[in-house]
Structure formats: structure tokens, C-alpha cells
Amino acid sequence: MSNQHFDVLIIGAGVSGIGMACHLKRECPGKSFAILERRQSLGGTWDLFRYPGIRSDSDMFTFGYNFRPWTGGKVLADGASIKNYVAETAREHDVERHIRFGLAVKTADWSGVDKCWKLSALNEATGETEHYTANFMVGCTGYYNYDQGYKPDFPGESDFRGQIVHPQHWPENLDYAGKKVVVIGSGATAITLVPTMAEQAAHVTMLQRSPTYLMPLPSTDKVSLALQKILPERTAYRLTRARNISISRFLYLRSRRSPKFMRRLFLGIIKRKVGDTADMRHFTPDYNPWDQRLCVVKDGDLFQAMKAGKASIATDHIDRFTETGIRLKSGEELEADIIIPATGLDIQMLGGIRPTVDGQEVVMKDKIIYKNVMVEGVPNAGMIFGYTNISWTLKVDIAAEYLCRLMNLMDKRGYRTVVARDTENSRGDDTVLGSLNAGYINRAADRLPRQGTHGPWKSSQNYLEDVKILRFEPIEDGYLEFDGKRTHASQKESGGFLRPLRSALFGT
Length: 508
Hints:
By secondary structure, this protein is of the alpha/beta class. Helix content is 29%, strand content 22%.
């Protein structure tokens, strides 16, 4: 097949890819682009996962795009609603027709001679390889392997006579009514699955090695609904969004600065929800808040299922699977008809693509990230990577805006290439995912790019700071090399923090 050329190629049609495409349409209207998506439908995570009760664990007023308000009072939306929201956004901004479905990108090589990216993609329906070139490439693939989730090799697994179902590969019409279910894990997936399955199952047990910090959250925002009745839609949305950003940021910062206080606060909330008779050992983590992500309990459904006797928690280690369930290290046996290992994701960068620059592979663990949007030493390429401590999409929006600013400046100056250069040996030990100590992140340390110790190489995980950097600071900052030459840092705008703060909370 003949080569197809675009100004910009976006890899992935999930939340990040659709967001990037919409910003391109809005801010770089003259650029040609295409989205290469392996699956047959857009939506990414929200198209892949089909387990019962799948929903957001971030509030939708900050998870929605900044240019398209999430309406209604629903705080935690189900997966189908989120996918529909992304699809409607794609249609409204006329980016759906730019998606090439069923294409698995296999190679991506930057040619310094031709000043472009050269990609090969397998059409999985026809078996043919298609070839593309682009002036700029943006990876919007998320950070995990879509083909398989992480699952340990459990001793005696082959002895179990029931079903073993991973949440990432949920079979259609799985019948769990009246059955005993064990969900292994204590993360967001498990917290969602347990109360949902308990509605029909005989009993659901959540088996955890260690507890997770839980945060009850109502599924409906009454304040937002009231605001929508008395204010214009966009005004109500901006006020709700500003409030939720502020609360999320406050909880995170206070957790990092006063972990003992926040630990008492979170555990006190849970104790009131589960009652005095509950064993708090199942709800008391051995780490500080936000060393790992908090898990949201929608409308307290997990606690209600436990009080009703439909669900329970076991905190122990697995000795082995048996014919009828799981034997724990303590000697206790959990009977099960179905076992669900909600044991995490298999971390993977760029959808498994190993990019090369003039034939030399880019080894991600040896690279650092510039402003969390570009990989050091990789020309004309961006990476949309959301937040792990607040809503993913908050970062998607401002990262996409930055890349559009960058491309517009290159057009204005007549530059053909841009590359971030670390001339200060800034590489640190933390990965691009920050300081989170989750197992799935630790397992992937050898696959993740690093962040630096200072400057634009340091990932702040601070939305307000990133808004200031990505929206307002000059593109030409002395760290970027254009057409092989480093430019001098431009004068930073004065004006203090009020303008970035207003922009972060209420929009551009």
C-alpha cells in the first residue's frame, strides 16, 4: 500500500487521543491528522473493560474535557456513559471521521534525513501492512497492556474446578447469580466489583493482602444540580469543576504534608460507615494516604453490602487454590464457584511500540520526560499522559494545549524539528508515574521513563503548577532544540499566580 502522509499522527482513540484530536481541530485548524486505533471502536479503557459496575473513580466534572462540559448531577459515571460522552465529543468536533480503526502500529521510526516519522501499522482484519508518515507523532495509548492484565501464577490454580475470570477479559453473559465469588484485590476494580456482584451472587468475598484507603462519595452532586437550575450551563459547570479541583488538590496535598492527621480522618470516616462491630483491621492500610491511590466507594455500596451479609473482606495471603476455592496462609478456606483476580494492570508504554530514532531504539527507562509531554532526545513527538492523583483528563487537556502551542510556534518560526535536550544530567529515580507505590507500578519500573530532579524534567503532579507551565510559560525556554539549534529562553510573563489560578479553576 502506498504511503499516507499527515501533519500529525495520533496513536490511540481513547480519552487522551480524542482529546488531543479535538484540541488540534480547535487550535491548529489547518493541520491534517489521523488517529490510528487498534480496536474497532473508540473509547480506550471505557470500551475495553466490561465487568459489572465499571465506572469512573474520579468525579466527572473534572474527568470531562474542559471544552465540553459534563452535564447532569452524576458524579461517578458508568463505563457506557463515559464511552458515549467521548463518542459524542468526537462527533461534535468532527474528529470521528479521522479515526482509522483496526490498525495496530508495529513500528515508528524518526528519519532525521526526511524530518518525519515513518510508521507501519498492521490491518488486523486484512493482514496487510499500511504505511504512514507524519511531521509530528503523539502517543495517546495510556499506560497498560490491552491484551492482558497482570495475574500472578497462583499455586494449585489448575486444581480449581470453578471459573477464573480476569476483569480485563470479562466474558459476555457470565452467570454469577446465586454463586459464591471471591474477588482477589483491594483496588478500584475490586471495590467496584464486590458490591455490584453481591446484588445477585450468593456471597462475595474480597480477598486482600493489605487494605486500601477508601473514600465514600455520593453518586449525585446535589449542589451541582442546584447550580444548573439557577445558572447558565457553562457557568454551573465551571463553578462545580473549580470546587472539585480545589477539594481534590487539598486532600492530596494535606495527605502528603500531614499524613498522620489525614490517616485518622479517613479511618474515622470509614469507621462511621461500617459501624462499631466491624473489624477495622480490614480497612487500615500499613502505608500513608496517597502512597497509593484512594479508592472511591460509590454511595457507600460496599459497606451496605457488608452490613447486609452479602459481602465480606478477608485480609490474608493465599497459600494455594483448591478444588473448591482458596486456602489461606492462616488455614482458613474460602469456598468459591468463581474467582476473579482483580490483581492489576500490566504496564506498557506506547501500546508496546518501541520507537526508534534513525534506527536506534529509544529505551524508555533510560529517558526522562520533559514537562511530562515529551521524551528527551526524541524529535517531533509528544506523549499525552494523565494524572494519577486526580482526574486523568485534567492533564490531557493542558498537555494537548501545550503541544498545539508548540506546533503553532514551529509553523510561525518556520521550524521543522524540535527535540528536548537534557544538558544538565537531570535524571532522577522516580518514574513518570511519580511517587505512587502501587504494585503494578513497581513491577514495571524497568519499562517506564524517568523524571528528572529539577526544572522541566520534574513531574509535579500539581495541576495548578502545570497550568502555569503548559499554558503560560514561553515555549522557547532554553531546553528545546529547534532545527538542531538551542534557542535562548524567552522572557517569562509577569503577573504572578492569579492568572494561572483563574485559568486552572475556571478555564482559559
